């Protein structure tokens, strides 16, 4: 669903142009109106669907860019931008489009006093489709990254009685909310990808801390810690004297009957204490000292000491 | 029935990863949070256990040296620990000590804090 989806009952391009001409005639000279209509037609010719009413903001921008690339004088740019906005204002006011593709302003039903012949249920269905379209558009532009949004958008064209019922009662508030959230959504467009990058970097940098291994994405370290803890438990059940002389994790794995190839890649064994059994390990990636006891796991990294029970 | 569009699904997966990362980052222990007295006493335990054979006597300097063998940056922990009594036996050692941030005495043996 495009932003400027026409009202199925009444919308067409000619009606919109007529509404625009009438509106523009009050403030422009006739030749200026003709010039504006010419520019609108030129933009319309360059749209993929050749219909202004079905174009998205990006499609309109692309069409405008192509128009000036084709030789239209650049000084007409501000005039075209303003009149394009006026055109959609007029179309929106006449109920020909449900949402202004340039400003995001939405119109969910007939204006007060206007008899559109639309039933409450039809209005609710349109509102449901409109909101689904807004959500889908937001997702596609990276404005909205809610896990709920996509299923709602996917279901947008399907009959959804719950959504219809909800919107039939709240449509006015939704419209107000959509308007008031415009600056927030614009900010989110920048903030969300930035936050994703920062959080990913933070998680990647923190992946070197073995104490957090279970929770973060450093799967290899987490798996190594898990197996080493198992090895400590197994070693506790063996005679302590059997553990003397162990100098590597491979050797430890052989003694307790638990291969530790992952651990050997991630940790260096610094020391084994056998009464009770404690492993002192050096995490290669971060240089952290990791201590694994029977009931305690602890790390020491640049003077920062943490104990995990 | 509308045609299937992969983009929303991809975005949901990306959103899940971002939200998951944020959740994990939120769940991480506070890096600026200093160790508690009890945690520092565990550090004392692991430092003494690291020596293997327990020292015959334990004073502040011996403790400082034991801590320094783990990491020179934690030697200062010895300044916050007062040794009340220390002895060795056939099972290892028994240390009674007090941390300046906690009035209660700690009993540390070869098996940990009691």
Note down, in words, how this protein is organized.
The complex is a heterodimer of chains A (309) and B (114). Chain A has 309 residues and is an alpha+beta fold. Helix content of chain A is 53%, strand content 9%. Chain A contains eleven helices and five strands. Chain A has helices at residues 13-25, 30-45, 57-69, 77-93, 120-140, 149-154, 161-180, 182-206, 219-236, 249-256, 261-266; strands at residues 267-274, 277-283, 289-292, 297-301, 304-308. The relative contact order of chain A is 0.07. Mean pLDDT of chain A is 72; it is low at 1-10, 111-115, 144-169 and 213-217. Chain B has 114 residues and is of the alpha+beta class. Chain B has three helices and four strands. A four-stranded antiparallel beta sheet of chain B has the order 1-2-3-4, with helices on one face. The chains are: A alpha+beta (309), B alpha+beta (114). The interface between A and B is large, with 44 and 38 residues.
